[in-house]
Design brief:
Strand content: 15-25%
Helix content: 25-40%
Order of helices and strands: HEHHHEEEHEHEEEEHH
Largest sheet: 9 strands, mixed
Radius of gyration: 27 Å
Shape: elongated
Number of helices: 8
Oligomer: single chain
Structural class: alpha+beta
């Protein structure tokens, strides 16, 4: 009988003590938030596609007669006159385009600017100390059933001044958001889902790191809560600054690749 009781005890699955303070086997669960700025413009066609489209256009129009200049010029004048009546002076438009192009060129050397790499995604990284390692905004999950992955992701975005996108005013007031001068929306982010997009184990399996994604809607970083610096970087630049390890490998899988480059299918 004693042997049978021992066998039954061995066959029964182990159950967690309900009085245990930790409902999981990890000493720490932390969350890293991947905040991205989506592309602002459609990327230029690579050389192979531009060559193909040019050839196709010439082939389809080889037998067509070109528009007579006596028809084309009056038609263009009608458009220019309509723009002028709407207050769109072409000289002013060209000046604005030149100013915008200059600002984009200057932004290329500014790691904090959101204007650079307009055809690619940018990702937000923080640096804790001068010359130190770079990381994503992060927050720890509290012990107990009250905390959630989504709440931790919102705390991570709040660490850089981020607010949830499209929340009504009563919700923002209840959360304690302070109104910004001039009625600005501030740094608003859209959280992509309520669950993690990936995870890795660290410290020999004692720490579980979750990864969530968010997208910037308006504004820019307003505070860093102790971080020395921040930067908006392309996928390639971000992966160069992140330390080697499982977390970097996971982020490499989570960061979407650019649409294409001039070298894709190159000559």
């Amino acid at each position: 009988q004693q042997q049978q009781q021992q066998q039954q005890q061995q066959q029964q699955p182990e159950t967690r003590d309900p009085s245990s303070s930790s409902p999981h086997p990890y000493s720490l669960i932390t969350l890293s938030l991947l905040i991205e700025r989506l592309p602002l413009v459609i990327p230029a066609d690579p050389k192979w596609r531009a060559s193909y489209l040019s050839f196709s256009f010439d082939y389809r129009n080889a037998q067509r007669n070109p528009m007579l200049s006596s028809i084309e010029e009056p038609a263009r004048e009608v458009v220019i006159k309509a723009d002028r009546e709407d207050g769109l002076e072409h000289a002013h438009v060209l000046a604005a385009e030149r100013a915008a192009a200059k600002a984009i060129e200057e932004a290329a050397s500014d790691p904090r600017s959101l204007l650079k790499h307009q055809s690619e995604r940018l990702f937000l990284l923080l640096q804790d100390a001068q010359g130190g390692a770079w990381r994503l905004p992060s927050a720890d999950l509290a012990e107990g059933p009250g905390d959630t992955v989504r709440a931790a992701a919102e705390r991570a975005s709040a660490a850089v001044g981020g607010r949830r996108f499209a929340d009504p005013l009563p919700v923002r007031e209840a959360r304690g958001d302070q109104p910004l001068p001039g009625g600005r929306a501030g740094f608003e982010v859209f959280h992509v889902g309520n669950g993690p997009a990936g995870h890795v184990l660290e410290d020999g399996g004692d720490t579980l790191r979750l990864f969530c994604k968010a997208q910037i809607i308006s504004g820019d970083v307003e505070e860093t809560h102790g971080a020395h610096d921040y930067a908006w970087l392309s996928r390639e630049q971000a992966l160069e600054r992140l330390p080697e390890g499982d977390a970097r490998d996971m982020l490499e899988a989570l960061m979407p690749l650019p649409y294409w480059s001039d070298d894709d299918g190159g000559e």
